[in-house]
Amino acid sequence: MTMMTRLSMLLLICICLTVFPTSVLAASFELTPTAKNNFDKIVSSTTSAKATTLNTRYSNVLELQQQSIDWDKKIKDLHYTNEETVIVLKKQIQRIDEDKINKLQTQVTQTKERYKTLFSAYEALNLQKAAAKKLTNKELYKLLQSQSETMEIAVQLARADIRNKTDQLTSAKMVTASTKKTLRGKLDEITPLKVQIKAAKSSASSYQKKFTAETSTLKKSIKDGSVDPTLSSLGLLVTHIQRVIEYKQNVWTIEQKIAAITQKVKVQIPS
Q: Where in the sequence is the signal peptide annotated (predicted)?
C-alpha cells in the first residue's frame, strides 16, 4: 500500500468520524422482544383511538430513525467528495501557469547568460579606455573610444532584450498571482459555511441526546404498563428525531452550497 493510499484511507476514516458526532450516530432504538410484547399489551388494553396513535407513533419513530441514518450516508458521501475536491483545487490553483512562468524564467536566465561575454568584453574595453586616458595616449584612447561606442549599441540592445523578457516574466507573475488570489478567495467562502455546519451538527447532537434520554423514559412507561405516559414519550421521541433530521437536512443543504462553490472555482481554473 502506497503512502498516498494510506493517507487517503486515513482521511476517509477521519471524515466518517467527523461528519457527525458519535452521539448523533448512536445505535438505532427499537424495543426488545419483551418490551415489544408489553407494548402490544398496552395497545390492546386501551381505546381504539389511542391504540392507533401508539402504533403509528412507534412506527414513525422507526421510520424516522431510518431516515436519519440515510441522511448520515448522504451527508458523509457529499462531505467526502467536497473535501477531496477542495484538496485537488488547491493543488491546481498552486500550479496555475506553472509551465508558463518556468518557461519565461528560463528565457530570462538564458538571455542573461547569452550576453555575459558581450558585457564582459564591454566592461574590459571601458577599463582599457580609462587606462589609456590616464596615460594620455590619445591615439589609443580614440581607437578604444570608437570601439566602445560601436559596442555600446550592441550592449544597449542586449539590455533591452533582457529587460523585455524580465518584464514579461514580472507581468506574468503578477497576473498569475492575481488569479490565484481570486480563486483562493472564492474557496475561502467555504469557511463560514463550515461554521454553520458545526452549529447544525451541534444542534442535531443535542436533540439526539434528548431522544436517547427519552427512550429510557419510554421503556419504563412500557414496563409499568402506563398508556398515557407511553403515548407522551413516543410523541417526544418523534419530535426529537424530527428535529435531528431537520438539522441534518440543514447540513446537507450547506454541503451542497460548498459543492456549488467548488464547481465555480473548478471551471474558472485556467486549463
A: 1-26
- Please state which of the ranges 117-121, 136-140, 231-235 shows the lowest mean pLDDT: 136-140
| Tens-place pLDDT, residues 77-131 | 999 999 999 999 999 999 999 999 999 999 999 999 999 999 998 888 888 878 7
- Do 132 and 155 fall within a single domain? yes
Pair (103, 171) in one structural domain: yes
| 209, 269: one domain | yes
Query: Do 169 and 211 share a domain, yes or no?
Result: no
pLDDT classification of 16: cutoffs 50, 70, 90: very low
The residue type of 235 is: G
Last residue of a domain, one of 126, 141, 176: 176
In this prediction, residue 51 carries a pLDDT of: 96
Domain count, the chain: 2
Residues 232 and 271 in one domain: yes
φ/ψ region of 225 (left if φ > 0, alpha if ψ in -120 to 50, else beta) reads: left
Q: Are residues 44 and 106 in the same domain?
A: no
How far apart are alpha carbons 265 and 4 in whole angstroms? 25
What average pLDDT does range 222-228 have in this prediction? 95
22 falls within a domain: no
Q: What is the pLDDT of residue 76?
A: 97
